[in-house]
């Protein structure tokens, strides 16, 4: 069952909604613009806010759905399916294992496993983004605090999973971290800058 939960989560997580929705809307191949990332932040660089919002929603939804369906087979299956969904988004088989950076799916899995922690993540993200206008910095800070928040909420098993997911998310944001350090990271709403 654990293997099935992992496979199910991975296949669901690997659906590249950013690419599919952009194409369906008659937009360019999202992989050919900005950072080449298939996530909502890069979709936003097409100038279509509604499309970026739809991508964010769908990428989060696939994480939540994977967890909620697998939860019918036990808490362990839900955790493994969440891991699978996150890995699927980062490394989708359909796109030669080159996917997104995982923030929306990270939130979706968290929503399915512990919704108060998901709300906390979003609150921190919004506060940091509003203060500094860096999407990547907001995600990095919110994710760094998520395992602690889960532990304080009395969810140690989920906190352990989120130590792994947070580490992966930070690895996927390594270029953003470098740009934040040297002051070249693009800000939210800025034109002609390198997207996060």
How would you describe the overall organization of this protein?
This protein is mainly alpha-helical. The chain has one domain. The protein has ten helices and no strands. The chain has helices spanning 2-13, 17-24, 40-44, 49-70, 75-90, 103-113, 115-132, 135-152, 156-172, 174-182. Helix 1 (2-13) packs antiparallel against helix 4 (49-70). The radius of gyration is 16 Å and the shape is globular.
- How confident overall, as mean pLDDT? 93
Percentage of residues in strands: under 5%
Order of helices and strands: HHHHHHHHHH
Q: Which word captures the global form?
A: globular
Q: What is the number of independent domains?
A: 1
Rg, nearest Å: 16 Å
Distance between the termini: 37 Å
The number of helical segments is 10
- Low-confidence stretches are 192-196
Largest sheet: none
Q: Which percent bin holds the helix content? A: 55-70%
Structural class: mainly alpha
What is the topology?
Blueprint: H1 2-13, H2 17-24, H3 40-44, H4 49-70, H5 75-90, H6 103-113, H7 115-132, H8 135-152, H9 156-172, H10 174-182
């Amino acid at each position: 069952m654990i293997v099935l939960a992992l496979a199910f989560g991975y296949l669901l997580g690997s659906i590249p909604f950013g690419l599919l929705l952009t194409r369906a809307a008659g937009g360019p191949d999202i992989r050919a613009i900005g950072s080449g990332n298939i996530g909502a932040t890069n979709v936003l660089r097409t100038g279509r806010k509604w499309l970026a919002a739809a991508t964010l929603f769908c990428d989060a939804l696939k994480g939540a759905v994977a967890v909620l369906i697998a939860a019918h087979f036990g808490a362990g299956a839900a955790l493994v399916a969440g891991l699978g969904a996150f890995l699927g988004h980062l490394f989708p088989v359909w796109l030669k294992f080159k996917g997104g950076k995982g923030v929306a799916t990270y939130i979706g899995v968290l929503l399915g496993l512990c919704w108060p922690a998901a709300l906390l993540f979003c609150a921190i993200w919004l506060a940091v983004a509003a203060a500094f206008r860096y999407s990547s910095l907001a995600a990095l800070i919110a994710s760094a605090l998520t395992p602690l928040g889960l532990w304080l909420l009395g969810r140690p098993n989920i906190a352990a999973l989120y130590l792994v997911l947070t580490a992966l998310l930070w690895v996927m944001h390594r270029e953003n971290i470098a740009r934040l350090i040297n002051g070249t990271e693009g800000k939210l709403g800025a034109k002609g800058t390198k997207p996060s």
